[in-house]
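Hi team, as promised in this morning's meeting, here are the two structures we talked about. I've kept the exact order from the run log so nobody has to guess. The first one is mostly here for context; it's the second one we should focus on when we meet again. Sequence first, then the predicted structure tokens.
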Amino acid sequence: MSNLFDQAGLSDTATHQPLADRLRPKNLSEVIGQQQVLGEDGPLGAMLAAGSLGSLIFWGPPGVGKTTIARLLAHETDLEFVQISAIFSGVPELRKVFEAAKARRSVGQGTLLFVDEIHRFNKAQQDSFLPHMEDGTILLVGATTENPSFELNAAVLSRSQVLVLERLDLDELGQLVQRAEDELGRKLPLDEGAHKALLEMADGDGRALLNLIEQVAAWPADKVLDAPSLGTRLMKRAANYDKSGDGHYNLISALHKSVRGSDPDAALYWFCRMLEGGEDPRFLARRLTRMAVEDIGLADPQAQAVCLQSWETYERLGSPEGELALAQSVIYLALAPKSNGAYVAYKAARRAAKDTGALMPPKHILNAPTSLMADQGYGAGYNYDHDAEDGFSGQNYFPDDMDRARFYEPVERGFERDLGKRQAYFDKLRSKREQDR
């Protein structure tokens, strides 16, 4: 590798310095991407223009510049940059950091404390930042890949502004490749297809892309590689997916909404993304069954059976064949008629039950197993529906002190269209029975 870099005119010191360090921006204008935050109209751009920088939480995936931007902010505001990681730091380390920041403050030097993986600190550790943020001892900049709403204390969030950093798109990654080639002093030995494949391998992670570039730069440059050849030499970056974090919730939301939106192709894509990320197929089987109940319901009662059968098939076959049964249920659910009529009716009935929970059933539908209960009117006047005309008595089954309610409103789709016709039929009979009384 040294010979290659020497040929590019690089010093021995640069040879052994990781490319990511050599390309680290010297000022904010050199940062690639994140213009929604750094631009003149962005929150950081506005803060710097006003000369008023407050505590911040950077929320975004790995390799998008969280650490770099924090370091540059310290430089642009003449603050001492101090970096710690919540993975390796505890209360003793925090105490030392705060004491050092107080000493700096006593001589007029401020401190920008950058806390990587801040979500890994527990509540007590997060609370320890508060007094030092409030008295100006530190300006806190936290970085997290997890949703701050769930992972950070409300007190810390209330004293900070959350800024969302986005994964780099292909154009931005391309700029990073150009910058790396300028640093190396030569083009990477890749044709157009391999160049695009390299960008896609990085999956929006700038740091991962630079690591891939370093591997490519170490190869002999006497042959230009195409995409298949590149794929045999490099492994694609592992998908950014945490089965207990944001990746899990974001992707299951995407799958659920794609099914609800009757898009089998998108639904299959998100289903497979979760499998590729290592998601437990049993979780997916359970969630698919929930979709059948919640979003399809009585528009296609068979949907629940399809999900349960695919779940059972997975349990019998195991992986990888069993996942195909789950994939079939994904397609079935996406193309099934949709209705949340039963779901809405259930929630409305639960609210009514909670509000009227003390009301007794009408006496005519109560059993009277004892003479005392019969004397109290239990069962008196009950009409046995099977003996009534059309098998329908039309009696009231709600509490006497409660107005009749309509919870279930079937949709005009699938099997529920037939249920709507039956409901209308019984409404008509009920009205007729009431007029006859």
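And here is the second protein, the one for discussion:
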Amino acid sequence: MPQQYLALDFGGTFTKYALMDKAGAFLAQGKTPSGRGSLEQMLAAVRPLRDAFAGQYAGVAVSMPGRIDAARGVACTGGSFHFIRDTPMQALLEEMFGAPVTIANDGKCAASAEAWNGALADVEDGVVIVLGTGTGGGIVLGGRVRMGCAFGAGELSYLGVDLHRLVERGLEKTPDSMESIWANYMSATGLLKFYGRCKGLDGPIPGVDGLAFFAAYDRGEPEARAALARFGQYAAAGIYSMQAVLDVQRVAIGGGISARPEVTAVIRDSVDRLFEAIPFTTFGRPEVVPCRHGNNANLMGALSFHLDRHGG
């Protein structure tokens, strides 16, 4: 059997896949629409890959959303795959692909990729923050990805930033209550909300996405510039709070909007200004850098988890 591996990254819209060697080189890759209606649809969407890559892989490495018990191969929850509840994904996929399978949470896969041969490879302690609809991420301590007792370490979306609101309102899925957690600010969604407010609205501008925002930014629009600056301030405040618990050496910024160097730069500058403004801080100021692996991080990290368990 060749020392090649099939990696899968189950996403809300597409499932990315890649045939990779043990060094993490991509030999082939692509994507297919995700099955969102049921577990059967989810599995059916990737079944053709079994035949397409027959005889070419020694194992299957899987990244997916949700609380994932990687040691047992069980998906306790599935994020946007709402039908996942204590589902034995590893066993189901091993039966399908006829090879050893490893599954892990997508944010933890991104952190594992950066710890393996990316932006965190030369530090012991670091955090990956993935800017998407919410705030994904993973924590690396002592060179290892921290899972947590309930497999939820690094779920940075839920970092409390308005404790009064959190106490009084709890966390309902309403725009108002979501303002109590970091995901409302430290995300691509949060950036667009800041932009809408700079335009005099209560939230995002209908029809405006990240591409439209950065087009306005590139034109020098004052509201877009102000929104990114405000986003950086809230990012820095959350990183400051996170540092009080973790005290890591480096924070790596990933996710779609991180492809724009201004995003990491404004977070870095805001972190520097905040730490300089609070002279009595008793923990370290982290270095803020971009992630190295971009949109391939989940696939790369899934492979690193697989190799760590099964060798290769």
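Starting points for discussion:
The two ends are 11 Å apart (CA to CA).
The first helix runs from residue 39 to 52.
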